[in-house]
Amino acid sequence: MSISVGDKIPSGKLQVMGENGPTPVSTDELFSGKKVVLFAVPGAFTPGCSMTHLPGYVVNADKILASGVDTIACLSVNDAFVMDAWGKAQNAEHIMMLADGNGDFTKALDLELDGRGFGMGLRSQRYAMIVENGTITTLNVEPGAGVDVSAAETIMEAL
Question: Which residues does the annotated region (Disordered) include (predicted)?
Answer without folding.
Answer: 1-20
